């Protein structure tokens, strides 16, 4: 049983189940409380209703598009302090740039690696690298 | 008694003399009476002549006073005879006439006979034109005592002459102002007359012959029509004159000359501009890649060479024909006609397309516009069209090419996605094991490793599919055909499928024995696996799957039937195309690239066989494929030779 190290949760918004479960497991192993959904609007609702420190956001979502969710988080004063790490497909340099410009803290290129995910989360939330 | 007797004799002699004298006198009286009578008679005759003469007679005395006028003369000037008698000559003329009369009288006084025309004034003031013949009258002493004139009224004649002259002047003016050249040529090729227009064009005639004047020739032109005119009637033609470098329309008409001879009236019209326009039209029309035609009263009146080319007919064939007959198919005629009428009425602005069938049976597609024109004084339709058959074919090819491109990019994106999923699993779980090996439960570790294994299998499958598809398309697929026991192949495929999907029922309906068939076993096994896997994929847990095989004629027919969701009617052929998958909503959770059936088709057809599907929505589908059975390896199964 991993000890709960943090109060605030990490929210995963990713529609591909396998990727979402993977990210959630890594978070779990790192000791973060996890919230997860496959839908952008649902994700925003969860972000508002819970104490969320970080959002892992896939840019390509069905329904409400990833960029729109990012925009919403960063422009809403209630949510703007939440860090966002975006997942992008490999061929998407412009996407990565755009996301950073819109206020994303970092981006991760798929397929996800456990080490880079772990490193990014810890850096942003704890100010250090792999724990 | 001598004295009386003598006196008596004297008296008697005297008496006798007197009687003689009286008889003489009587006789002479008779004679003079005769003469008088004769004189009277001639006088009467003379008077009659004077009274009834057509000419007027006018006598004046030395003071020019009228002594005598005959009724005709008086009537000529509108007076009564006694109105004129006693009046001076000068009262019957104007001032100008006075001068002339005075002069003439002077001549007459000198004894000169005067014959001339003279203008008198009618009583009503109008002019009377006369021709008069006046002679002086002399007395016994040859002294001038007056004039006797015979006067002829030539007013009418004069009027006619004036009218004629006016007409002639008009005619001449017309000839002179005509733009066309007019000339009159005689039998000897002399130019009797030429108008201003002609002179301006060719210069002054200077007595030259027509062949010299028009053509600078020294002899009669061998093509000359002038000769023909004298023989026959009007000749009309066109000629290019080197002298002026212009083209004329020449019309020659025979003309009767006043003296009874025949002349040629020639009219030249400069048609150089018109000819140029005609030339230009012909050039454009003949070389135009656009078909141009005129239809009037439902028939072709003009067709340019392009029309002839497209329809494969000669001009003659077309000019008798009805345009609508060339429209193909016949059912479209009304539609096309409707579009044409619509355009003519101004309602339909854009060119319309239709197809025609030409003489060779070839179908050509054309794009046409029509407009109303006037042709030979009546309404007609001018049509222009372009043969767009090749263009349309290219358009179609382009469309197909674009569709193919779309398909390719679809394929690429789908493949890309399908590749990424197993890659994500492999990357994710391997890195997870690397980073959290000690923290993970044993069972989790095993699961992750299994996932990685499965993912690599999936990747391999995908790569094989792509390679097969590429090879099939490039025609590089190598079949290794061998006599194969097909029944065994089917049984093995079904058995392994059951391992993959335990619990699923796969029924086999196979004949006892079947001769070996010459096939690439691996590939046909691939087809069977694919069809059975599809059946499993697209039907529910409890649904049965039946695999059947039988010989139908020279072919082996194999079928895989499921009780799945079925395939919509319009898609029964499309399923075998690349990228075809039933919409996601009908098959949630079922992935796949959609190449499977396309590959099956490719493999079956590479063997010379066919593949198809029969289906009913909601009930299920049955996939069939047939393979030709070769008679060469008549080796039955179980190894027994025939």
For the record, give the distance between the C-alpha atoms at the N and C termini of chain B, rounded to a whole number.
220 Å
The mean pLDDT of chain A is 89
- Write down how many β-strands of chain A occur, each being a DSSP E stretch of 2 or more residues: 5
Main sheet characteristics of chain A: 5 strands, parallel
Record the strand order, biggest sheet of chain B.
Answer: 2-1-5-4-3
Q: How much β-strand is present in the residues of chain B? A: 15-25%
Number of helical stretches of at least 4 residues of chain A: 5
Low-confidence residue ranges of chain A: none
Write up what this structure looks like.
The complex is a heterodimer of chains A (131) and B (642). Chain A has 131 residues and is an alpha/beta fold. Chain A contains five helices and five strands. Chain A has a five-stranded parallel sheet, sandwiched between helices. In chain A, α4 links the parallel β4 and β5. The radius of gyration of chain A is 13 Å and the shape is globular. Chain B starts with a helix and ends in a 14-residue tail after the last strand. By secondary structure, chain B is α+β, with helices and mostly antiparallel strands. In chain B, 44% of the residues lie in helices and 24% in strands. Chain B contains 17 helices and 22 strands. Chains A and B meet through α1 and α5 of A and α13 of B.
């Amino acid at each position: 049983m991993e000890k709960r190290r943090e109060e605030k949760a990490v929210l995963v918004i990713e529609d591909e189940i396998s990727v979402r479960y993977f990210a959630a497991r890594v978070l779990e192993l790192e000791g973060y409380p996890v919230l997860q959904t496959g839908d952008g609007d649902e994700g925003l609702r969860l972000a508002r209703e819970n104490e969320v420190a970080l959002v892992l956001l896939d840019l390509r979502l069905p329904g409400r598009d990833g960029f729109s969710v990012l925009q919403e988080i960063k422009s809403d004063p209630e949510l703007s302090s939440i860090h966002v790490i975006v997942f992008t497909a490999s061929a998407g340099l412009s996407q990565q740039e755009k996301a950073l410009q819109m206020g994303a803290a970092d981006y991760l290129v798929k397929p996800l690696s456990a080490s880079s995910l772990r490193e990014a989360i810890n850096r942003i939330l704890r100010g250090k690298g792999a724990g | 008694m001598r004295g009386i007797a003598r006196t008596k004799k004297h008296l008697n002699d005297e008496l006798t003399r007197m009687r003689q004298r009286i008889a003489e006198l009587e006789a002479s009286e008779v004679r003079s009476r005769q003469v008088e009578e004769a004189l009277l008679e001639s006088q009467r005759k003379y008077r009659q002549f004077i009274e009834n003469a057509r000419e007027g007679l006018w006598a004046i005395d030395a003071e020019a006073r009228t002594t005598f006028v005959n009724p005709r003369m008086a009537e000529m000037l509108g007076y009564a005879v006694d109105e004129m008698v006693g009046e001076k000559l000068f009262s019957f003329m104007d001032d100008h006439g006075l001068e002339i009369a005075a002069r003439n009288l002077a001549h007459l006084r000198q004894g000169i006979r005067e014959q001339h025309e003279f203008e008198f004034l009618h009583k009503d003031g109008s002019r009377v034109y006369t021709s008069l013949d006046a002679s002086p009258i002399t007395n016994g002493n040859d002294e001038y005592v007056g004039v006797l004139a015979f006067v002829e009224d030539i007013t009418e004649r004069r009027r006619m002459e004036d009218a004629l002259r006016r007409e002639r002047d008009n005619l001449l003016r017309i000839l002179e102002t005509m733009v066309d050249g007019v000339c009159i040529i005689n039998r000897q090729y002399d130019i009797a007359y030429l108008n201003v227009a002609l002179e301006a064009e060719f210069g002054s005639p200077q007595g030259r012959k027509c062949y010299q004047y028009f053509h600078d020739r020294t002899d009669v032109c061998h093509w000359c029509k002038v000769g023909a005119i004298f023989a026959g009637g009007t000749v009309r033609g066109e000629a290019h004159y080197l002298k002026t470098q212009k083209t004329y329309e020449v019309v020659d008409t025979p003309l009767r000359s006043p003296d009874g001879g025949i002349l040629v009236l020639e009219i030249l019209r400069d048609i150089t501009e018109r000819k140029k326009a005609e030339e230009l039209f012909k050039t454009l029309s003949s070389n135009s890649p656009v078909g141009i035609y005129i239809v009037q009263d439902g028939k072709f009146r003009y067709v340019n060479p392009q029309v002839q080319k497209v329809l494969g007919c000669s001009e003659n064939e077309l000019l008798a024909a009805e345009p609508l007959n060339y429209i193909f198919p016949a059912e479209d005629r009304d539609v096309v006609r409707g579009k044409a009428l619509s355009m003519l009425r101004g309602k339909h602005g854009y060119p319309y397309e239709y197809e025609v069938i030409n003489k060779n049976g070839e179908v050509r597609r054309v794009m046409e516009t029509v407009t109303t024109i006037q042709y030979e004084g009546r309404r007609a339709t001018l049509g222009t069209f372009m043969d767009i058959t090749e263009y349309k074919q290219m358009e179609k090819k382009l469309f197909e090419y674009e569709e193919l491109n779309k398909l390719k990019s679809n394929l690429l994106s789908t493949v890309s996605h399908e590749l990424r999923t197993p890659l994500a699993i492999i990357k994710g779980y391997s890195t997870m094991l690397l980073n959290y090996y000690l923290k993970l439960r044993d069972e989790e570790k095993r699961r992750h490793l299994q996932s990685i294994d499965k993912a690599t299998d999936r990747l391999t499958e995908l790569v094989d599919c792509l390679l097969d598809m590429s090879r099939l398309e490039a025609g590089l697929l190598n079949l290794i055909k061998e006599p194969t026991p097909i029944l065994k192949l089917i049984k093995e495929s079904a058995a392994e499928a059951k391992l993959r999907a335990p619990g699923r029922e796969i029924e086999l309906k196979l004949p006892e024995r079947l001769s070996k068939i010459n096939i690439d076993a691996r590939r046909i096994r691939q087809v069977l696996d694919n069809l059975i896997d599809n059946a499993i994929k697209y039907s529910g847990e409890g649904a049965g799957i039946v695999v059947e095989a039988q010989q139908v004629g020279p072919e082996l027919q194999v079928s895989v039937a499921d009780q799945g969701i079925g395939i919509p009617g319009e898609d029964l052929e499309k399923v075998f195309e690349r990228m075809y998958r039933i919409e996601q909503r009908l098959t949630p959770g079922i992935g796949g690239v959609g190449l499977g059936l396309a590959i099956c088709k490719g493999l079956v057809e590479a063997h010379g066989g066919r593949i198809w599907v029969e289906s009913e929505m909601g009930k299920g589908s049955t996939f069939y494929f047939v393979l030709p059975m070769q008679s060469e390896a008549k080796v039955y199964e179980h190894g027994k030779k025939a």
